[in-house]
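Hi all, long-time lurker, first post. I run a small reading group and we've been trying to get comfortable going from sequence to structure in the token notation. Rather than ask abstract questions, I figured I'd post a concrete chain and ask someone more experienced to write out its structure so we can walk through it together at our next meeting. Sequence below, copied exactly:
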Amino acid sequence: MVVYFGADHRGFKLKETLKDFLRNEGYEVADLGAAIYEQGDDYPDFAAAVAKKVGLEQEVDRGILICGSGVGVDIVANKFLGVRAALAISADQIYNARHDDDVNVLCLASDFISEEDAKKIIGVFMATPFGAEERHKRRLGKISEIENR
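-- Answer (accepted) --
Happy to help. Here is the structure in token form:
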């Protein structure tokens, strides 16, 4: 499994910290930008790069996207086939999103989350398997049908 990271200038500092956190936990991390802090950069560029990669290996790889509100990167990521992105505000919420909805991209709001809370959320995001209950599979199937129209 590869964990792809992307963040704009507002999420850059948090991205750098969280990449190191996951590497220290033994995960393979790939940074798809921003490579340097650049105040005028645009979150859609980084969100699209991560979503494209996760969409190619949606059952294996994961993505973590960060911008100021978390909403922009979430919107972009969910435009890609096979990507199920969620903006998380708590560890409990991302647990449900992973277990019930098989979320494969985590979106974080750097302006509204502490580094410690982000680490807790990421820990749960990485550790929680998809529950694969029939009702959840059925619902994901309906989402796939919508994507393929």
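A couple of things your group might point at:
The two ends are 29 Å apart (CA to CA).
The CA atoms of residues 55 and 82 lie 5 Å apart.
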